[in-house]
Amino acid sequence: MKRRDFIINSVLTLGGSAILTTGCSDKKIIKTQGQVAKRKFKNLDIPLLGFGCMRLPMDGSKVDMAELDRMTEYAMNHGANYFDTAYMYVDGLSEIAIGKVLKKYSREDFILADKSPIYKMNSRSDVRKIFDEQRKKCQVDYFDFYMCHNINQNTVDQYKQVKMVEELDKLKQEGKIKYLGFSFHGTPEILKDVVDDYKWDFAQLQINYLDWDVVNAHEQYNIVQNLNIPVTVMEPLRGGGLVNLSEKAMAKLKENYPDETTAQFGLRWAASQNNVITVLSGMSNLKQMKENIATFENFTPMSPEEIKVADEIAKIIQSQGEINCTACKYCMEVCPRGINIPAIFALYNQYKVTKSAFHLKLYYETLSDSEKADKCIKCGLCNKNCPQNLPIPELLSQVQKEYEKAR
Ligand code: SF4
Ligand code: SF4
Question: pTM of the predicted model, to two decimals?
């Protein structure tokens, strides 16, 4: 899909709701006064903002249930009724906490998404056993959305060996799963294989304006879109990396859109992709929730000009890191080992800024083993192609050493 496809073609008004049609006429945005914008998915209206339950409000080592209750009530009152949890979120406490706060609402009034932890599966029977455990923890009879969690190069074999899809399909036939999907952190090659495994209802991908070109998010998005698989978005703000922009990147945003916050900008970018049905934000307090809901109550898809500014900010972020790689990919044209040099450098730059375990993990989970820095044979062919004159093999060694030290 071309970014200019975001152009709004028409605005229709039906009763209290306005329907905005983006470049693809089948993906309408439904707007209702005082409610977050929604998109159609099968027979549901899905809020474009989903509550990602991996960074819940905490009180020491416990979930702050009073704050979570306030957040849930505020979300429900504003039509943001999509909740996304997982087995290991908040050290296993997320499912229990969200189950408790949702108990006071009618089951048909909220949409609950959960995920099957591939790493816990030793046999097919484990799939059902853990599913039942999750239903109990969440206090529900069924999940609306359910995913094979975190398919990547390290988990894909296990996911296939335990016949996860076959067992989950049985649960779907039994009415315990309404829509079956997967969340993904691997390479496009693995994604192409996984999408062939089943007639998936949806896919959860890491989509944001920085990963779009740097870490093959665009390619992943196209793979699922070509099969008409709707997308739920995780990490739209790249683990907070797109909230805390560098001075130069922030200046670019403010020079063009002084009233837009970094969070608004990143969330709107992700939701403007017209195959996206919800953008998950891991909110930790009521203040964040109010801000995000306000963004989606007044949601308008990004204009081509805004998309251009996002591209420019992404370039600034890429170029301002410790390694001044512009992601031109010229080096990759000659590398005999297929090292993903620009992606390695972009991930490293993010890690240098945040020093977060999240960005360290991203390196190990996003790239395939053959693309990583330690596979460089120091032939030096890439150096000749680099317009920035970067000493690529030396930098790759430096990156590798730092990652190994931090791991
Ligand atoms: S030096 Fe390393 S990264 Fe550069 S072309 Fe050779 S193998 Fe590829
Ligand atoms: S050629 Fe140089 S600037 Fe271009 S992607 Fe490779 S390392 Fe980065």
Answer: 0.76
Inside any domain, residue 283: yes
Q: In this structure, are 140 and 269 located in the same domain?
A: yes
H or E stretch including 115? strand 111-117
Q: Please say if the pLDDT value at position 316 is more than 50.
A: yes
Residue 149 is inside which H or E element, if any? strand 143-151
In terms of domains, do 299 and 328 share one? no
Q: Is the CB of 382 under 6 A from ligand 1?
A: yes
**Cα 342 to ligand 2 centroid, rounded to whole Å:** 6
345 CA distance to ligand 1 centroid (A)? 14
CATH (domain of 18): 3.20.20.100
Query: Residue 339: CB within 6 Å of ligand 1?
Result: yes
Stronger pLDDT, 324 or 106, i.e. the higher one = 106
Question: Ligand 2: does its nearest atom lie under 6 Å from the Cβ of 214?
Answer: no
Same domain for 290 and 361:
no
Could you tell me if 79 and 111 lie in one domain? yes
DSSP assignment of 176-227, as one string? SEEEEEEEE-S-HHHHHHHHTSS--SEEEEE--TTHHHHTSHHHHHHHHHTT
343 is written with which tokens?
């992606």
For residues 280-296, average pLDDT: 96
Q: Closest Cα to atom 2, ligand 2: which residue?
A: 386
Q: Which domain holds residue 165?
A: 3-303
Ligand 1 atom having least distance to the Cα of 338 = 8
* pLDDT over 80 (residue 98): yes
In a domain, 75, yes or no: yes
pLDDT digits (tens, 9 = 90+) for 236-259: 987 667 887 888 899 999 999 999
